[in-house]
Write a structure and sequence with these properties.
By secondary structure, the chain is mainly beta. It has 2 helices and 12 strands; from the N terminus they run E-E-E-E-E-E-H-H-E-E-E-E-E-E. 7% of the residues lie in helices and 61% in strands. A hairpin with a 7-residue loop joins strand 7 and strand 8. The chain is elongated and about 70 Å long. It starts with a strand and ends with a strand.
Length: 211
Amino acid sequence: TVGDGRVRLRGNLSQYPWPADQGGQLNVSARISGGSLYYSSGWPRITGISGELAFRGKQLTMTARTASIMGHPLTRVRAHIADLYFNDEILEASGEVEAPTADVLRFIATTPVGPMIDRATDGMQAQGRGRLALRLELPLRHLQDSTVQGSYQFLANRLTVDAQLPPLEQLNGRLEFTESAVRMAGGALVVFGQPATVSLDSQKDGSIRVA
């Protein structure tokens, strides 16, 4: 639903789109509520969007004050296409969500993020909550070249990385990842009833080194 829409038009429409707004200008903005964004196959919809949708020249930008994904509230949501008239449109999307870690692992496993990080989280089990921040770059005409940059802040979690390893208790730390690497430095936890620290880094051969 659009609660307030505004249009500003200046220039000769036969020359649209104007390069760098030289010779004309077209801006369209609208406040929206109850919005739903389906941005690409394989990704869950963002629902309950209240915010602003704006077309400025060749650009499309959506910012949301409130939204949710898979039933969890989202914050700092932004979707942006820098050039709608370029033959290789790229959607940049970002947002943050706080949710149970088990739900975040499910999100990773059931979306293209899983293959992007080489299924590094498959088989993990978790209890506790955390904060996920994601920034996606999606070339809409060749999504196989998408990139992801994100982080997950564990908040006093119980994490089982593998059934053959002891569970990690009271895990606090920040896991950072891209489509090609994962990293954690200075994570704090309890293992075998004793305090410990953990760090991990992706290696050039694709393995992950844990200390």
